[in-house]
Design goal:
This protein is α/β, with parallel strands linked by helices. The chain is built from six helices and six strands.
Amino acid sequence: MKQVNSTALLEIDFQPWVIELGHDLDAVLRAKRIRERFRREGALVVCTRYLSRDADDPMRSDPKGEGARFHFSMEPQAGDLVATKFDRDIWSNLDLDVQLRLRKISDIVVTGFVTDFGVDLAARTALQLGYRVTVGATGCAGTTASAHHTALDSMSKAGIFIDEQVGANP
């Protein structure tokens, strides 16, 4: 296990409307177990969400609206870092990297929706930024099962560790 005080759990887009795009809705429950484990171990939890900049999309552009809310079981808790993105890659929020570096984070574990978009981009960019990256595969879902597995395989080939066990058991 990595040194906990240097680890952040990066949760990608646990918003109900994004979750509905996933092939495996049970991934939310497994992601919650992963969160609980990492929180017990003292890791930083980073809750991310997508907001649109398009005013003609009020469901997704209102930061206090329905589209911005987190799934009830994945709401941020005291001590969590909340990061908002306005495109598919959470790292376009430059403050995230700054906040993690200030906390001396070196290891990132990624869970979320959907594996073949937001999760893939988050993991690859984190790797490019010099973090050691693990994807908690059981806490992720793709747009389809095939897309999920293809994305995991591609990330693995890029040097990202894919953990199929974390969160698998209650």
